[in-house]
Every structure is written in structure tokens, then in C-alpha cells.
Design a protein that fits this description.
This protein has about 160 residues and is of the alpha/beta class. The chain has one domain. The protein is built from 6 helices and 5 strands, in the order βαααββαβαβα. The longest helix has 20 residues.
Length: about 160
Amino acid sequence: MIRAILFDAAGTLFFLTKTVGDHYAYVGREVGLDLDAQDLDRAITLLNYAWTLYEQQDESLKRLYPLQRPRIRQSFDKMELADGGVLLALPGKDPSKIRGEHPTIVVIDEASFIQEGAEAFDVALSSRVPRMLVVSSAAPGWFRRLTKLAQPISLDEYL
């Protein structure tokens, strides 16, 4: 079973006058939550990309990894698989949310541009996440400092 947390994601499954993030930020305010609309939007983009990859993969892979229920009946911020695996989009501004999810993999996309990216990385490491995938285009900041002296390695043992 895989439980994945995806950072840096936006998009919509249905027509709204504004973004999905704006919609859920509004709903959150109605129940006393302070949600950042732009942050929610970024959290959904990568998940929507995962949905696209899933929907376009070969039917044999879909049979191997079936969904728990059709996409239309799933939460806007999750992809749930029949074996209990979950892809979950978390907004990047509160990295401590990783702790409560106990993921088997954390994916941080465009790490250099996530305001709290270094803290999310530290939280994931201290939570002993078995696998992490952190990628980014070049930009100054915490991720560049971390990878400045990195050397290429074979990824065979990680795949």
C-alpha cells in the first residue's frame, strides 16, 4: 500500500467562477478555517497530473492498480486506490501536516519555489519517510544550497 503526499499542485474538476482553491478557502472560512486559496490551487495541480497519468495508462496497469471508486466520486484532494493506497495533495505552507499522514513517499515538486520547502523536507526526514522525491528547476534558495555539491548516482536501486 502506498500513501503519497504531493506538494505544489492547481486545477479544477468542474466549472467554478474562481479556482478550486478559492472555493475551498471560502468553504473553510464558513467553518472557521483559515485556508490559503493560492496554496490550495498549487496543491491540486500535481494531483491532477497524477490523475491524467492514471487515466492515460494501459488498461493492464489499471487492472493491477484499480481505483477504490471512480474519480467523480473521490475527494478533490485525493486519489484512492482499491488496495488502500492514497495520493494526497497537501498545501505546502504548513509542512507539519506531513507528520499526521505517515506517508511511504513524499514528492516535493519545484522545491526551490515552495516558501516552506526546507521545513517540509526537514519534517519529512524527521518523520522517517521511507522515500522522498524532491525536484526543482534551477533557482537560488534552500534546495540549491542542499544540492550544490551533489554527484549523479544510479537510481536502479530506488526503482
